[in-house]
Amino acid sequence: MSIDIDTARKVAHLARIRVAEEDLPKLADQLSGILTFMEQLNEVDVTGIEPMTSVTPMRLKRREDVVTDGGYAEQILKNAPDAREGFFAVPKVVE
């Protein structure tokens, strides 16, 4: 896949990267190279391969997925400029 200069300019804008106009052709070539490499990776058969989280085999630490209130609402509300009845109090914005 080939990236043209206009697409490179748009990518730079979306990434909030200032790229000089004379550097856009080089950026387009580099982005094209990255996409070519990604296309090569898509050709690799990974059927039956477990996803890895690290280069060393290890299990992720897991916790039970339980919904809680965090248990420290009072500590959080200490930072609030105005708190009432266990909630942040904010100015009314809707009439």
Report on the architecture of this protein.
It is built from 3 helices and 2 strands. The N and C termini lie far apart (55 Å). The protein has a domain at 5-42. Helix 1 crosses helix 2 (24-42). It has helices spanning 5-14, 24-42, 73-77, and strands at 83-84, 87-88. 2% of the residues are buried. A hairpin with a 2-residue loop joins strand 1 (83-84) and strand 2. The protein is flat and about 60 Å long. The longest helix is centred in the middle third of the chain and has 19 residues, at 24-42. It is 36% helix and 4% strand. With 95 residues, the protein is mostly helical. Strands 1-2 form a two-stranded antiparallel sheet.
| Total beta strands | 2
Shape: flat
What does the average pLDDT come to? 89
What are the segments in which pLDDT stays under 50 over at least 5 consecutive residues? none
What is the radius of gyration computed over CA atoms, rounded to a whole number of angstroms? 25 Å
Family: Belongs to the GatC family.
Catalytic activity: L-aspartyl-tRNA(Asn) + L-glutamine + ATP + H2O = L-asparaginyl-tRNA(Asn) + L-glutamate + ADP + phosphate + 2 H(+); L-glutamyl-tRNA(Gln) + L-glutamine + ATP + H2O = L-glutaminyl-tRNA(Gln) + L-glutamate + ADP + phosphate + H(+)
EC number: 6.3.5.-
Protein name: Aspartyl/glutamyl-tRNA(Asn/Gln) amidotransferase subunit C
Quick tags:
3 helices; two-stranded antiparallel ribbon; mainly alpha; 95 residues; 2 strands; nucleotide-binding; Asp/Glu-ADT_sf_sub_c; ligase
